[in-house]
Specification:
Its EC number is 2.7.11.1. It is found in: Nucleus, Nucleolus. By secondary structure, the chain is of the alpha+beta class. The protein has 2 domains: 13-107, no CATH class; 163-462, Phosphatidylinositol 3-kinase Catalytic Subunit, Chain A, Domain 5 (Orthogonal Bundle), CATH 1.10.1070. The chain has helices at residues 3-26, 38-42, 45-48, 112-130, 132-136, 165-172, 177-192, 199-209, 212-223, 230-238, 242-265, 296-299, 313-316, 327-341, 343-350, 352-355, 359-368, 379-392, 397-406, 414-422, 426-429, 438-450, 452-455, and strands spanning 30-32, 72-75, 78-81, 89-95, 100-107, 146-150, 153-157, 162-164, 276-279, 285-287. The strands form 2 sheets. Strands 1, 2, 3, 4, 5, 6 and 7 form a 7-stranded antiparallel β-sheet that branches. A 3-stranded antiparallel β-sheet has the order 8-9-10. Helix 6 crosses helix 10 and helix 8 crosses helix 20 (414-422). The longest helix has 24 residues, at 3-26.
Amino acid sequence: DDSLPNIKTTFRKLDQTLEATIRKEDRHHPVRLKDYSPWLTEFSANKLNVELEIPGQYDGQSKPLPQYHVKISGFSPEVTVMSSNKKPIKITILGMDTKEYPFLIKFGEDIRQDQRIEQLFGLMNHIFSVDMICSNRRFEIMTYQVIPLTSALGMIQWKSNTESLDAFLGRSANKTYQQDLSKSRNDYHLWISRPRLNQGDAYGLAAQEYHADKVIPKFRELANRFPKHILRQALWDLSINTENFIALKNNFLKTYATMCVCHWILGIGDRHLCNSKICLNSGKVLGIDFGHAFGTGTQILPIPELVPVRLTPHITALMEPFGERGQFKVYMVHCMRALRDNYRILLATMNVFIQEPSFDWLEHSRLLDEENDTPEATWYPQIKIEQARRKLQGEGSTRIMVEELEANNTLKYKDAYVNLVKNIRTVGRFEEMNNLSVEEQIDCLIDHSTDENLLGRMYAGWTPWM
């Protein structure tokens, strides 16, 4: 048929157009707001004679005064489609005060968990503010506003002038940093993968068969591909003088130590290089995306996370000459002591997870117990809040993680992973992993997080050697 070549040509052009559009979005090129919402594009508070507040101005800390809240004037005509899996959209709201307020619109996810975690962070910041030691040292965990609109749609405050840890490390590296990083992940994947095995089974078999004598040299070889002081150099490049560098470094270590403690209490996982951001003005660290919280990174994922917080070689190199046992540990001890002294108020606030479990929590309870999949099931949140209580009363990180691994009913090589965690060096120092002092608990947490035999078995996308 003569029309067949024309049809093929048409489809080829359509395919090329679609591919070009996808590439354009992946490069974060802006697109028009009217492509998504013509009504928002034409919105004008003056023309419509309406007053709409910019979201996120209610913090629950004091009586609201809406008469002083900033109102929406309009919307920027351009938006940015992000490159992550569900393509969230960054929009900019124009305020009556002539300022711009950027937000990230996420759809297809229940962000109520993120909102509640941010509220818990706010409570932790209040605890730090009334604790004399933490207040004098100005401890805080950086937060942002999360506004759920439905169970599958929400808005997240966009923190301007921040950069992911991944991009920040690339500042001081050579031009091939991203290619080198990708190559290291591919090499690690080839080293751990097995023919005709899926990723979960390949990692599980490695947990069972690969001895530490094989894992640790490979881990160190990957880490040595990148300059040891790459993070220090990135902070130095951001500084205008030595005094500024010392301030940026101190801000980074203080906020990172605070974040590590708070994240571990809430069991927050999935701390890959893009889920931590650095404020370019101050050097402070901001954690984002809490889809895996309360231990689900270990208990749910087919390749379980084996370390409680991210203390990888290039981060701990910034802590020299005293290392992670120096000032960084002191920061963690102060934060943990303040939270443990106020554990009752934290646990009371966490009860909202039991009273109103999010979709993710109900789904996790269904996966972990097929016989108890009713919406009224509250056993899963109760267990998670109980684990948080034990952490706040001196339980060690290894015992909690062993419990989470043993509860992972879909994990084929469960025993191998459990043995790895049970046999790290910290277990010999603390025979009983409960009722630890604050200093012992932080020692356990640091030992656990820096264990090279565990880091060398983490998922390649987590990039544990960086």
